[in-house]
Design a protein that fits this description.
This protein is of the alpha+beta class and 293 residues long. It has two domains: 6-185, Nucleotidyltransferase, domain 5; 217-290, no CATH class. It is 28% helix and 22% strand. The strands form three sheets. The chain has a five-stranded mixed beta sheet. It has a four-stranded antiparallel beta sheet with strand order 8-9-10-11. Helix 3 packs across helix 4 and helix 5 runs parallel beside helix 6. The longest helix is centred in the middle third of the chain and has 26 residues, at 171-196. The radius of gyration is 21 Å and the shape is globular. It starts with 9 loop residues before the first strand and ends with a strand.
């Protein structure tokens, strides 16, 4: 079990966590029998913070030809250039802890957690993430109200919740793909919760008729006034708490919204002014689309 206390995860008196989307590529299905070959990670909500490393295979480990065909890695090259497993796990753990707060391991399925947990304990004797993880498929089932595990396969998850760039099986790319999915699910849930304040019958996760839920930008975003993005007007919609008007920000295109300064592109595209409206009481914004008023 983790010996970490809540006090170690506080900043300015407030407890906080850092969710980290993690993907791995391996030489098979069983840690110890098979090797962990690469780790990719990205902070959920901040895609500028990433981690990637390739590892040397375990001596004498089994190799599943199908797994190697999927991941496209070269075992002989990894023998030469890959990091020693203990070094790789130490670097990954230190990176996760350097982000601040409690690091939360997030993965699509339990496969990635299984390998990382085994490697952390086997080579370091500890796991900086603690004994548990956040499994994105289960999270999706919970917030969407789905009942069957089969509903959480990617083919069944609505396309507008996914990043739509394909699945490369490179660990850092796939970690980003997972982060976008998780962010979309969180933001969709918040948009629906907002709509339900005035229309309780609209609680349909996949086919929500509320325009804000349909058109929201695919990532949780923080307003960044230090980057010159300021609330330029007030919308007439009620705030999330039902008391105050919702601040909105208009920017020249889809690359300049709160939290998107020169990094991400709104899924509506770059063209035309974009209006970003606050979707929660903690300065998170969603894009209403090009030309929105």
């Amino acid at each position: 079990m983790s010996t970490e206390t809540d006090e170690q995860n506080r900043v300015g008196g407030a407890y906080y966590e850092t969710w980290i989307s993690v993907d791995v590529e391996c030489s098979g299905q069983c840690p110890g029998d098979n090797s962990l070959l690469s780790i990719g990670a990205v902070v959920v909500g901040d895609h500028t913070k990433t981690f990637y490393i390739e590892l040397k295979p375990l001596p004498g480990a089994k190799v599943d030809a199908k797994a190697m065909e999927v991941n496209g890695l070269d075992l002989s090259q990894l023998e030469l250039s890959g990091a020693e497993p203990a070094e790789a796990m130490d670097r990954f753990g230190k990176w996760a802890k350097s982000l601040g707060g409690r690091p939360v391991f997030c993965s699509f399925g339990s496969y990635d957690w299984l390998f990382c947990a085994w490697y952390f304990h086997h080579f370091l004797g500890r796991n900086p993430f603690g004994p548990n993880s956040l499994e994105v498929k289960s999270f999706y089932l919970g917030v969407s109200g789905k009942r069957n595990w089969n509903d959480a396969i990617k083919k069944k998850i609505p396309a507008d919740l996914q990043w739509g760039r394909g699945h490369s099986h490179r660990a850092d790319d796939d970690a980003l793909e997972q982060a976008v999915l998780l962010e979309n699910v969180i933001l969709r849930r918040r948009a629906i919760s907002y709509a339900l304040r005035t229309a309780p019958s609209l609680d349909d996760f996949d086919k929500h008729p509320n325009q804000q839920a349909v058109n929201e930008c695919p990532r949780p975003m923080k307003a960044r006034n230090d980057a010159g993005i300021v609330a330029s007007n007030q919308s007439t919609a009620p705030g999330v708490n039902g008391a105050q008007p919702t601040p909105s920000v208009t920017t020249p295109d889809g690359t300049g919204g709160p939290g998107h300064e020169g990094v991400d592109i709104c899924r509506h595209g770059k063209a035309g002014p974009h209006t970003w409206t606050q979707t929660s009481d903690d300065d998170e914004y969603a894009c209403l689309g090009p030309g929105s008023k």
